[in-house]
Design brief:
169 residues; 6 helices; single chain; Four Helix Bundle (Hemerythrin (Met), subunit A); 2 domains
Length: 169
């Protein structure tokens, strides 16, 4: 019973954080809402007994990646005058919500029509550090390294593009 309440709490926090990310005007507020979403997802992983995903979500995504994103936002020093004017923002939001509601209702109907089933734990080693590490570094080493290089290139490119603005005199 407690795990069900924890699931509802973490799921609600994830949705509220995602809505805050979409609705906030300032990038720093959006980033903080995104941190709330990432931490609540880590809680959902903990409820699934996925200890590796829980730790990675907290350490890598909510910790390192968000620190990097917040550093870049602060490095850019975005002022309210730099933000674009968002005319018709609420119209787009309402229109998008109206477009998503039928899809959500269809998915809800599909989920409710699924037959009930028992959930069983796959195995004692499933999702733990050793089993994931063996698969990652034995079978997926080259794609893992390529993604690392692409992330480094994207980071360098973001810093170059965020250089000081030149003033014409």
């Amino acid at each position: 019973m407690l795990s069900q309440w924890l699931f509802y709490g973490f799921a609600t926090l994830a949705v509220v954080g995602a809505l805050g990310l979409i609705l906030s005007r300032h990038p720093m507020n959006g980033a903080m809402c995104f941190v709330i979403t990432l931490i609540s997802q880590a809680g959902l992983y903990a409820l699934l007994s996925a200890s590796l995903l829980f730790a990675l979500q907290l350490i890598v995504y909510a910790g390192a990646i968000m620190s990097l994103i917040l550093f870049i936002i602060m490095f850019l020093n975005i002022q309210p005058a730099d933000l674009p004017q968002e005319t018709g923002r609420w119209g787009f939001l309402i229109g998008g919500s109206l477009a998503v509601v039928p899809i959500g209702l269809l998915l809800l109907k599909i989920v409710r029509s699924l037959p009930a089933g028992e959930t069983t734990i796959i195995g004692n080693g499933f999702g733990h550090v050793k089993s994931v590490g063996l698969v990652l570094f034995r079978d997926w080493l080259l794609p893992f390294e390529i993604v690392s290089i692409l992330l480094l290139v994207a980071l360098v490119g973001a810093i170059v593009l965020a250089g000081k603005k030149e003033t014409i005199q």
